[in-house]
TrEMBL record:
<dbReference type="InterPro" id="IPR058922">
    <property type="entry name" value="WHD_DRP"/>
</dbReference>
<feature type="domain" description="Disease resistance R13L4/SHOC-2-like LRR">
    <location>
        <begin position="410"/>
        <end position="671"/>
    </location>
</feature>
<dbReference type="Pfam" id="PF23598">
    <property type="entry name" value="LRR_14"/>
</dbReference>
<feature type="compositionally biased region" description="Basic and acidic residues">
    <location>
        <begin position="32"/>
        <end position="47"/>
    </location>
</feature>
<dbReference type="GO" id="GO:0005737">
    <property type="term" value="C:cytoplasm"/>
</dbReference>
<keyword id="KW-0433">Leucine-rich repeat</keyword>
<keyword id="KW-0067">ATP-binding</keyword>
<feature type="domain" description="Disease resistance protein winged helix">
    <location>
        <begin position="346"/>
        <end position="398"/>
    </location>
</feature>
<dbReference type="InterPro" id="IPR002182">
    <property type="entry name" value="NB-ARC"/>
</dbReference>
<dbReference type="InterPro" id="IPR036388">
    <property type="entry name" value="WH-like_DNA-bd_sf"/>
</dbReference>
<comment type="similarity">
    <text>Belongs to the disease resistance NB-LRR family.</text>
</comment>
<keyword id="KW-0611">Plant defense</keyword>
<dbReference type="Pfam" id="PF00931">
    <property type="entry name" value="NB-ARC"/>
</dbReference>
<dbReference type="GO" id="GO:0043531">
    <property type="term" value="F:ADP binding"/>
</dbReference>
<keyword id="KW-0547">Nucleotide-binding</keyword>
<keyword id="KW-0677">Repeat</keyword>
<dbReference type="InterPro" id="IPR055414">
    <property type="entry name" value="LRR_R13L4/SHOC2-like"/>
</dbReference>
Length: 707
């Protein structure tokens, strides 16, 4: 994976994002089913605690997949927002209306134009489509306009009959030659056909096949859908993806819905903006909350209380009201997607979910269909991509996802295969009873982490054969395995003590791909080379792809030389792609062993990982490197031979106060340079490289840096 900056995205986003919707509608749906007389006793068990998470989700999915007794086969799912109520719903839509209207008006080609409005439920797709449908420019452009409200159970033949009825009311709806009639009519007229709320790709493909054959006269089809697969179907398509409202537009919509044309009292503006912000830009939430607010006392005390309480009855009632609109998003998911989606409820509100965490949980709990041709990680990635394409999961930021519509009733299901805890002490040997555990994350408060008190794992850890990920905070010792002990599935091991990096341990984790080593030296260990000998056994990890080694408190003498020079670097596995070193104090000459790694793409050197005034890179070195970071170094002169760094894309130089000379040229692929608190010579060198994004940051005011 290529890196665009010096650090990957944090595992947990700190942005205050609130989950909504599903908590209310699932509770309401379960209660409704329980009140139905002919439901059996098993339906009530969905609200009871079940020992197995997988069994719980399966039971819950079965419960939700059974429609209540009053469910009709011809259910119509109404638009989430009534766009006919007033024009306040158009907040934030003006530029989108103009864009799509111009797109339809200016279409000159003979073939059918297909425009899709794509986005999650409640974001305003139908409102936008109606404004376009009724726009004067559109009525002038098309001879005939047809609007068809679809739903999950709408039949394709009914759509064709509805189109005919709107084009010519005198035509019998049961006319047997509907297709022939439509073909003749639409070839001689320009028509706009709006299909609002497409839920099924097969139904849509059927309709579009006929419409494309019928239409050769600059006509257009406008579709609203939550399905990305529908949105990008046609070769002559134009996709418009709806966006959430910003804070200003959210407040404007809320204000209009509550006060109509009347001004908002000044004392309500501040709490009102906070209430609008809690709606996270989704128009459906804003409109529903506004409807409830309009019926309450309009006082600063009342509104402030609502704004400050995340679970205030106004929000809870709003989620309940939204349930009828939101439930079909779950109800019409394919069965293989329902259980992974339901499991999102294990995460608390106001949290974004790291990609790696949700994938590991899905795999651990066995919610994914097995495919002998694909790894579980690939199956999980496809599952997540499918949920995103159906607009029930929204990408929140790089490396994280954010679930809307999650079932609050599943919040208690984290157990058995995934365990994350903060614990000040050694884990008990009974941890091995969790024989199905795949992910174990153990953190300790930073205030009590010390060199003298390392975390020691029990020897029984080697009995947990299904472990895939072991992640710790602080220096942690892994016991030597007994004869024949090994962890065949372990792929991640982070923050282990260097003293645990021996031949016995490494040979017992043959499939490890990611390793993090943490070295903490006490003053008494200043001359002890043993902790720094951890690299001598790395070659046993033949499948290793990522290695990070940090000396937390490196000890150097007054001349800047390590009190105990590290032993020579050993041979690294040839498959290594990412290497991060910190505080080791190696001489730059040792870098020659790293330069020959055939697959190395990312190199990070921090806190005097290498020391000395000169780094000379020979010809044809670092042949796959894409990203390099040098931070806190005493390097003075850096040179590179011909053919070195041919694929380097990003270069970060930070806090290198002595650096005077840099390589004269890099490859044409170099696209980004970041220089932080370095000498003016480095800054000027970077700025001379044309067609490259150069960012310079300095903690002092130097005129040289402003040129």
């Amino acid at each position: 994976m290529r890196e665009s900056n010096d650090e990957p995205a944090e595992e947990t986003s700190k942005a205050p994002h609130r989950r909504w919707c599903c908590c209310g509608f699932l509770r309401r749906r379960v209660r409704k089913d329980e009140e139905t007389p002919d439901r059996n006793n098993d339906s009530r068990e969905v609200t009871q605690e079940i020992s197995s998470p997988a069994e719980s989700v399966n039971a819950y999915a079965m419960e939700l997949s059974t429609p209540p007794s009053d469910h009709s086969d011809e259910d119509y799912v109404p638009p989430a927002i009534d766009s006919d109520e007033n024009k306040s719903n158009l907040v934030g839509l003006s530029d989108q209306i103009n864009r799509i209207t111009a797109m339809l008006k200016d279409w000159k080609l003979s073939q059918l134009l297909f425009v899709s409005i794509f986005g999650m439920t409640g974001i305003g797709k139908t409102t936008l489509a109606k404004e376009i449908f009724e726009h004067p420019l559109i009525s002038d452009r098309f001879h005939h306009r047809v609007w068809v409200d679809l739903g999950p159970n709408y039949r394709p033949e009914n759509v064709l009959h509805d189109i005919v009825a709107q084009l010519d009311a005198d035509v019998d709806r049961m006319h047997h030659n509907v297709i022939k009639y439509l073909s003749k009519f639409m070839r001689s007229n320009t028509c706009l056909v709006v299909l609002d709320g497409v839920w099924d790709t097969e139904v849509f493909n059927y309709l579009l096949r006929f419409l494309k054959d019928m239409t050769k006269n600059r006509s257009a089809v406008l579709v609203t859908t939550t399905l990305e697969q529908v949105a990008v179907f046609s070769q002559s398509y134009r996709v418009h993806q709806m966006r959430l409202l910003n804070e200003e537009d959210s407040w404007s919509l809320l204000r209009h819905k509550v006060f109509d044309e009347m001004p908002c009292p000044p004392e309500l503006v501040k709490p009102g903006k906070r209430i609008a912000e809690n709606c996270e830009g989704l128009p459906l939430t804003i409109v529903t909350v506004a409807d409830l607010l309009s019926k309450l006392e309009k006082s600063p005390e009342c509104w402030k209380k609502i704004a400050e309480q995340e679970e205030h009855s106004v929000f809870m009632d709003a989620y309940e009201k939204m349930s009828e609109v939101l439930f079909p998003n779950y109800d019409y998911l394919p069965r293989h997607l329902k259980e992974p989606f339901l499991y999102s409820g294990v995460f608390p509100m106001k949290k974004s979910i790291p990609y790696s965490k949700i994938v590991n949980l899905w795999i651990s709990e066995g919610f994914l269909e097995q495919n002998p041709l694909k790894t579980p990680e690939n199956v999980a990635a496809e599952c997540l991509k499918d949920l995103i394409s159906r607009s029930v999961v929204m990408v929140h930021q790089q490396s994280t996802i954010h679930f809307y519509l999650f079932p609050i009733d599943v919040l208690k299901l984290v157990e058995l295969r995934y365990l994350s805890l903060t614990y000040n002490g050694n884990l008990p040997s009974s941890i091995s009873k969790l024989s199905n555990l795949e992910c174990l994350i153990v953190g300790r408060p930073l205030a009590i982490t010390s060199v003298e008190n390392p975390l020691c794992l029990p020897v029984e850890i080697w009995d947990m054969k299904k472990l895939k990920h072991l992640q710790f905070t602080g220096s942690n010792q892994v016991p030597d395995p007994g004869e024949g002990s090994f962890l065949p599935n372990l792929v991640t091991l982070s923050d282990i003590s260097a003293r645990s990096c021996n031949t016995g341990v490494f040979r017992s984790i043959p499939n490890l791909k990611k390793l993090g080593i943490r070295i903490e030296l006490s003053p008494d260990e200043a001359t002890d080379r043993e902790p720094l000998s951890c690299f001598q056994h790395i070659s046993h990890l033949e499948k290793l792809e990522s290695l990070k080694c940090v000396v937390v408190n490196p000890i150097f003498n007054t001349t800047g030389i390590a009190v105990c020079p590290p032993p020579p670097l050993s041979v690294f596995p040839s498959g290594l792609k990412k290497l991060s070193l910190c505080g080791l104090g190696y001489p730059w000459e040792e870098m020659s062993k790293i330069a020959l790694l055939p697959n190395l793409e990312v190199l990070k050197l921090r806190s005097y990982a290498f020391r000395g005034p000169k780094w000379e890179v020979e010809d044809n070195r670092f042949l796959r490197l894409e990203f390099i970071l040098i931070e806190d170094s005493d390097l003075v002169r850096w040179t590179a031979g011909n053919g070195s760094f041919p694929f380097l894309e990003c270069l970060n130089i930070k806090h290198c106060y002595k650096l005077q000379a840099m390589p004269r040229k890099f490859s044409f692929d170099l696209g980004k340079i970041q220089v932080v608190d370095c000498t003016p010579l480095v800054v000027n060198w970077a700025k001379k490289l044309t067609k490259i994004d150069v960012r310079v940051d300095a903690s002092w005011d130097d005129k040289t840096l402003k040129k």
